[in-house]
Amino acid sequence: MVFHWRFSGHFMRVLGIETSCDETGVAVYDSDKGLLGDMLHSQIALHAEYGGVVPELASRDHVRKLIPLIDALLKQCGLQCGDLDGIAYTQGPGLVGALLVGAATGRSLAWSLDIPAIGVHHMEGHLLAPLLEESQPEFPFLALLVSGGHTQLVEVKRIGDYSLLGESLDDAAGEAFDKTAKMLGLAYPGGPELSRLAQQGDPLRFRFPRPMTNRPGLDFSFSGLKTFALTTWQQAERQDDQLRADICRAFEDAVIDTLVIKCRRAVKQTGITRLVMAGGVSANSQLRQHIDEALEKLGGRAFYPRPEFCTDNGAMIAYAGWQRLQAGQHEGAGFQVTPRWPMSELQAVEGRSEW
Ligand code: KG4
Ligand code: ZN
Question: Rounded to whole angstroms, how far apart are CA atoms 211 and 64?
Fold first, then answer.
């Protein structure tokens, strides 16, 4: 198969497609002008009545929404399909059916336009999202990835060169937020609501453990905190709104403290004082404040995506895809999805140690 791409590593406009879970996200990244536009359709209302994501409903909704969303985005950006130079879609990790919708659509569209396509690692998308902002970290930097499916501390030497320093051995931070919220009767996805209630909670009433902080290493474990919250709720004499808020506060403080302790440890271990935080939980303003303070004390600095790019979105996929396409990487005519995919398996992007 011979492809005749129009670009030669210069000017590129890349369409990004994200369908790994419960958001349909699309965006166009332009190597010259930056992000031209992004659109998102959230499936939260669809899954709320089930208290969590129903994979088959997610896939079907991506099928319904993706193409109209791409049409609307191109219109908003004043572009035609023919103005695109490449397409990036989320290849994994994620829900297999949901991933297949974005991959099949992206790959077919690229085929019909005779432009290259690339499958992007969802967590690499999160990790690179802060690079869409004005102030960016220099390499190397540390990344704390905190989403619904992953909690990882990563050393980033350059794009695509990632060493895992530590990760959650059980629940991801976002998952622990959501499960604890559900247990306390909050609507799905409970993370943001739990955090809102925590503001009304008494920080001194309960103290939950900071798991795995009293032994060396950079791994996490959050599932015990959920049990701690449940036991505290069940053993209380009166189960009222104040108790709920106090538990939310104790839970949130414990998660934040634990994440901060491990980030501090990672800075000391590596000597790297620039830290990127990304993924859904990085939208949490209390967490940002504590991470900021910790990094400042260590003489370093924290970097984040804007709040709407902390959670799943098409912009991070367009950007990560552009980084790889401009380096000459692309898929063949077929496509595959990779529901489980360690980031360490990614290929480094050559010649991009700075920009
Ligand atoms: O990155 P993301 O959109 O999806 C995955 O890749 O998993 O992350 C979603 C997660 C959910 O668990 C959600 O509850 C959590 O991020 N989240 C928050 C906040 N906003 C989103 N958790 C705590 N505080 C928040 N403000
Ligand atoms: Zn995500």
Answer: 42
**Phi (first) and psi of residue 111, to 5 degrees:** -60, -45
Q: CA-to-CA distance for 316 and 340, rounded, in angstroms?
A: 19
**Residue-wise pLDDT tens digits, 256-311:** 999 999 999 999 999 999 999 999 999 999 999 999 999 999 999 999 999 999 99
Nearest atom of ligand 1 to the alpha carbon of 189:
14
How far are the Cα atoms of 111, 155, 275 from residue 271, in angstroms, in the given order? 45, 11, 11
Q: Using a 6 Å cutoff on CB, does residue 283 contact ligand 1?
A: yes
Question: Residue 145: CB within 6 Å of ligand 1?
Answer: no
Q: Which residues are CB-neighbours of 130 under 8 A, at least 6 positions away? A: 136, 137, 276, 277, 278, 303, 304, 305
- Measured distance CA(319)–CA(130) in Å, rounded: 10
Q: 230 C-alpha to center of ligand 2: Å?
A: 26
To test the ligand 1 pocket, which listed residue (281, 308, 343) has its Cβ within 8 A of the most ligand atoms?
281
Q: Per-residue pLDDT for 132 more than 70?
A: yes
Ligand 1 contacts CB of residue 248 (under 6 A) = no
Q: Taking Cα atoms as reference points, which of 317, 322, 321, 278 lies closest to residue 38?
A: 317
| Residue 191 near ligand 1, beta carbon < 6 Å | yes
Which residue minimizes the CA distance to atom 8 of ligand 1? Answer: 280
Rounded CA separation 305/277 (Å): 8
| Distance from C-alpha of 286 to C-alpha of 199, rounded to nearest angstrom | 9
What's the distance, CA 271 to chain centroid? 25
pTM reported for the whole predicted model:
0.95
Residue 232 Cα to ligand 1 midpoint, Å, equals 24
- The partner residues of 301 in beta bridges, in order of sequence, read 274
Which atom of ligand 1 lies nearest, measured to the CA of 287?
24
